[in-house]
Amino acid sequence: MTNSRFAAQADRLIKYFDGKRAVDGVSLSVPEGSIFGILGPNGAGKTTTIRMMLGIIDPDEGHRTLLGSDRPLSVAHDVGYLPEERGLYPAMTAKEAIAFMGALRNLPLAEGRRRAPELLARHGLEEWVDKPIRSLSKGMAQTVQLLGTIVHDPKLIVLDEPFSGLDAINQGKLEEMIRAQAARGTTVIFSTHVIAHAERLCEQVAIIAKGKVAFSGAVDEARGRLRPVVHLKTRAADGPWQSALPPGAKPNGGGEYVFELPESGPEPLLKALIDGDAGIETLSIERPGLHDAFVAIAGQAAADEMEQGR
Amino acid sequence: MRWPEWIRAAFVIARRDYQATVFSKTFLFFLLGPLFPLALGALFGGVGNQIARGDEQSPRIAVVSSVEDYGKLVEAQARIAPVIPRIARVEMVHVAPSDDLVRQRQEILAGGQGDVIGVLEDPLGEEPHFIGGTGGDNSSVKQLALFIEEARQAEAAPPGRTQLKLTQQERVAASIETVRKLLARAGQMLLFVLTLLLSTMLLSQMLEEKGNKVIEVLAAAVPIDSIFVGKLFAMLAISLTGIFVWFLAGAAMLAFFYEPGAGVNVLGAGPAIGWPVYLLLIPVYFAMSYLLIGAAFLGIGAQASTAREVQILSMPVTMFQVVLLLIAFAGVGRPDSWQAIGAAVFPLSSPFAMLGRAAEDAALWPHLLALAWQALWVALILKFASRMFKRSVLKSGPRGEWRKWFGRPARQ
Question: Which residues cross the membrane (chain B) (predicted)?
Fold first, then answer.
């Protein structure tokens, strides 16, 4: 099962909580150096899966490897983890908090104290180096914790719902930080229930719903599961060109047809529209987004839950 | 030398906890807390003693006699006085007889010779006479009668010089036995109070991490065992810091107020194992007691998720400690009885029982055996507690088994 090309692998992980399967046979393979998204609504089993992969809790069945080891805590020095529930000691200064998090993962305290001010300065927090955490805003505290997650230069970074609670500006900064880490060759795994973040950042995703993996692979592959969508508006309401449209395609309230591109491709459709004097007003062929793929893979109900969780 | 990873991680956790606690303002209150009753006790004790001394000055008696007779009386007093409690001993003042004895007596009783309670006339004559006011039990007059009797006998024959040869034997002399029993119970009480005061703090130790939500950061980076060991030893170090400060304060007070010869001679009798080893065993057994009970409390407290739950837990936990003390008390005075051995074998009461044993029995090897036994149980309890913690606490799904019974119903 162990494969050096993968930074993390899970094989049929199962976890019961009070007799109920919270995670039901999850399998994942995270390629080294990739940005990997775990997508799913709240309560889908994302956090429990992450906790099992990191060795915080043990699976009831199945097994996992992290950086090639089946004892995840033995490689904890090369891992950085930002949990969903952020937590720092309020009385600690920002510098000490970062150094302490590094020390937990074997970075000498003195080195952590040396790196912390540099990291804080790079993220515009130089004035807060010696300020206690309790005096920082929520966004600042989250940045401090994130810096504590990367201070020891880990090979793998795991971020559980890193965007939640951040405003748009800080979300943008976080995306930049994730890309910068990936550019250095660090593998980044993050969970989210916001499809847009996964779509912008990830090369690979796993879609988890009700404790099971509904899809795992490249984002393009997920989107490729759906046919492109045609948006068509014509001046003529009727005509022989309609036979080129898929059966059941009807105009919506605005007179626009929305349908999947037929297997035969765009050319026969275009020819039929022109030859049949449809009077094309607007025509677009759009590649489906990850949201559409998610709806197709996990179902509308799961997609609705994701929307509610935002 | 490289430490094993779990010890290194435990040290990182312990260092953080120790610094966060000891270098905080609230630690000053923690240190001062036990000093308040000590200082008040010393203050009121000192004032009380002063008042007592003022009230109970030795009764002074004027002795109207020849210098020769007075000398004999003083010699007799010197022979008898050691067996009379110091506070009750009469103090004699010599007054040479004048021509008018009646008038002289009146002048003395009116305060002419200072503060005296009475006048003793012609002590070694035919009819010794005491005129004055004595306490309710007439002990002053009885002492005077004894002095006179002793002086008269000494005139008839020289006083005896009998010397009693004294050989101190361990566990034979009833007096030493009593003192050591006292010492055993006092040591156990001290251990109990310190453990009670300090170990209940461990109940809320994990609450901070849960409240701050730091627990997951810790659990993802280091083994849960390291978190438990780190927290436990940090609290032990914090407690020992406090005990060291209190010990210094106590020693300073003792040096200031201690009067040799007053009260029971505990220092002289000493514990059977000897003072140096006994004084070493107190912090060692405190550490063991703290680690044993603390490991259990840390495990129990780790299951609690609110301060309210911790408060509810602390009462049965305190009662449990009282039971441990009573078990250890049962063996005092009979170090080889089944009660004493049973209390020493039961891990949680073992430190109390063994400290009691140290006061009464000189053998050292049982302590080495007991310490190894206790250390084994510290490891076992810690392992069990951390496993429980890992099983029941770190899950994002429904609430844990423990809280299902003791907490509020799960919110769906």
Answer: 27-47, 189-207, 236-258, 278-300, 312-332, 364-385
